[in-house]
TrEMBL record:
Pfam families linked: Talin_IBS2B
Keyword Cell membrane included in the entry's annotation: no
One GO cellular component term: focal adhesion
Domain of life: Eukaryota
GO molecular function, one term: actin filament binding
InterPro entries according to UniProt: Alpha-catenin/vinculin-like_sf (IPR036723), Talin_IBS2B (IPR054082)
Stretches assigned to coiled coil: none
GO biological process: actin cytoskeleton organization; cell-cell adhesion
Name of the gene: Tln2_0
Start and end residues of each Talin IBS2B domain: 8-119, 129-241
Compartments where found: Cytoplasm
Keyword presence, DNA-binding: no
Protein name: TLN2 protein
Keywords: Cytoplasm
C-alpha cells in the first residue's frame, strides 16, 4: 500500500520537475505555480515515506533511517532545483545558469530514482544492505561535487573542528571493514548510514576550515585536495564492501 502511494507521488514529483525546468523559459506566474505544486508534492511524498518507514516497526531503525535519508535527498535536490530555476528564469538558452538548471534537474531525477529503488529493496531483506550502500555512494558523490564547486561556504570554522570531524571517518572505516567481513545485511545498512554522515560532516568541516581568515590560499588548496582524496579513498572502500 505504502509502496504504491510512494510510487504514485514520486511520479507526480517528476512531472513537477519537468514543469519547473520548462517554467524557467516561461512566465513568472507559471514558474510560481510549478514551484508551489512541487512543494505540495514533496510534502505529500515525505508523509507517505514516513508512514512507510513507521510500518517497518521499531525493531529495524537502521532501515527506517535509510528511507528517511532517501526522502531528505529528494527534498534537498528539489530545493536546489528551485534555486537553479530562479537563477535561470528568462535567461538565454546558452547562459551558464541554464546548464546549472539541467544539472540540478538531473540530480533531482537521480535522487527520485534512488528513493524508488530503496523503497523496492526495503521489501526484500536480502537486498536492503546492498541498496543502502549504493544510495550512500551516490549521496557521497553528490556531496563531493558540491565540495569541489567554487561556492564559498556561508560560515567558516577552525582547523581544530576539521580535525575533530576526521575521527568520524576513522570510526566509519572500522565499521565498513567489519561489515565487509561479516556480510550481514544489518551491519552493511548501519555502515551505509554511518558513512553518509561521517563523510558529509568531514567535507563540510574541511571546506569551512579551508576558508578560515587565517588560512592562506596555498593551505586552502591543499586542504581541499586532501578532502577530495580522503573522500575518493573512502568511496573506493565502500565499493569494495559492495563487491564483497
Amino acid at each position: 500500500c505504502y509502496r504504491e502511494n510512494i510510487l504514485k507521488t514520486a511520479k507526480a514529483l517528476v512531472e513537477d520537475t519537468k514543469l519547473l525546468v520548462s517554467g524557467a523559459a516561461s512566465s513568472q506566474d507559471k514558474l510560481a505555480q510549478a514551484a508551489q505544486s512541487s512543494a505540495n508534492t514533496i510534502t505529500q511524498l515525505a508523509e507517505v515515506v514516513k508512514l512507510g518507514a513507521a510500518s517497518l516497526g521499531s525493531d529495524d531503525p537502521e532501515t527506517q533511517v535509510v528511507l528517511i535519508n532517501a526522502i531528505k535527498d529528494v527534498a534537498k535536490a528539489l530545493s536546489d532545483l528551485i534555486g537553479a530555476t530562479k537563477g535561470a528564469a528568462s535567461k538565454p538558452a546558452d547562459d551558464p545558469s541554464m546548464y546549472q538548471l539541467k544539472g540540478a534537474a538531473k540530480v533531482m531525477v537521480t535522487n527520485v530514482t534512488s528513493l524508488l529503488k530503496t523503497v523496492k529493496a526495503v521489501e526484500d531483506e536480502a537486498t536492503r544492505g546492498t541498496r543502502a550502500l549504493e544510495a550512500t555512494i551516490e549521496y557521497i558523490k553528490q556531496e563531493l561535487t558540491v565540495f569541489q564547486s567554487s561556492e564559498v561556504p556561508e560560515k567558516t570554522s577552525s582547523p581544530e573542528e576539521s580535525i575533530r570531524m576526521t575521527k568520524g571517518i576513522t570510526m566509519a572505516t572500522a565499521k565498513a571493514v567489519a561489515a565487509g567481513n561479516s556480510c550481514r545485511q544489518e551491519d552493511v545498512i548501519a555502515t551505509a548510514n554511518l558513512s553518509r554522515k561521517a563523510v558529509a560532516d568531514m567535507l563540510t568541516a574541511c571546506k569551512q576550515a579551508s576558508y578560515h581568515p587565517d588560512v592562506s590560499a596555498e593551505v586552502r588548496e591543499r586542504a581541499l585536495r586532501f578532502g577530495t582524496e580522503c573522500t575518493l579513498g573512502y568511496l573506493e572502500l565502500l565499493e569494495h564492501v559492495l563487491l564483497v
